[in-house]
Design goal:
single chain, 207 residues, alpha+beta, 5-stranded mixed sheet, 4-stranded antiparallel sheet, 4 helices, globular
């Protein structure tokens, strides 16, 4: 009888475990793959299942570029969000923090996230995004596939793409940043040369 009770107890615990996992609000996965033999694509995603009383979910995404140099392979990082709820939803993102080599910049939104006082010279998320796109010999662009996640089937992609052409018509900037990036990597081999922390927010649309 004791063996039978023990077996029934194990089965009961297994059933409870399955129920708990099935009831979880978020289904997470992460994987890495290769495209065209040169571009590494890292994909993160989650199922968004809105329940009664929950209007917003957030997640912090870390985008890390290991090494940068003129003529590097294009870098692509992709985040996917799936809306499995019965209501449509909207996705927004904010850059909280950017580290370029050994310089760190925290946005106004990041200061709020970290509960730090905002200074007059702190840049907004939008300003940091514009600088990453326009102010360096490399270009890091953040783009989205949709502005609305339809109920049940909606998919939103947030893409991070960094390019640094070998011929950039700015030899001085290429040389300066190329040398600085190489020196930083030699001194910090385990650190990415660029690290971006982004807050992604998904909000349930009004019915």
């Amino acid at each position: 009888m004791s063996k039978k009770k023990n077996k029934n107890s194990k089965i009961f615990r297994l059933i409870i475990l399955v129920v708990l996992i099935s009831a979880n609000t978020f289904a997470w996965f992460i994987y890495a793959t290769k495209i065209d033999g040169s571009v590494s694509v890292h994909v993160k995603g989650w199922d968004v299942l809105f329940e009664a009383g929950e209007n917003e979910v957030t997640n912090i995404i870390n985008v890390n570029v290991d090494s940068i140099y003129p003529g590097m392979d294009d870098y692509h990082y992709e985040v996917k969000a799936y809306n499995r709820s019965e209501m449509s939803a909207s996705l927004t993102y904010e850059i909280l923090e950017v580290r370029l080599l050994d310089n760190t910049y925290i946005s106004q939104e990041g200061k709020g996230y970290y509960n730090q006082p905002v200074q007059s010279d702190d840049k907004t998320s939008t300003q940091l995004e514009s600088e990453l796109l326009n102010n360096y010999p490399f270009s890091l662009e953040i783009s989205r596939s949709n502005t609305n996640l339809q109920a049940g089937t909606g998919i939103e992609k947030v893409n991070f793409d960094l390019v640094w052409p070998y011929e950039n018509d700015n030899d001085e900037a290429d040389t300066e940043w190329g040398i600085n990036a190489s020196n930083y990597k030699k001194s910090n081999p385990s650190n990415p040369t660029i690290a971006i922390k982004v807050k992604i927010t998904i909000t349930q649309n009004a019915s």
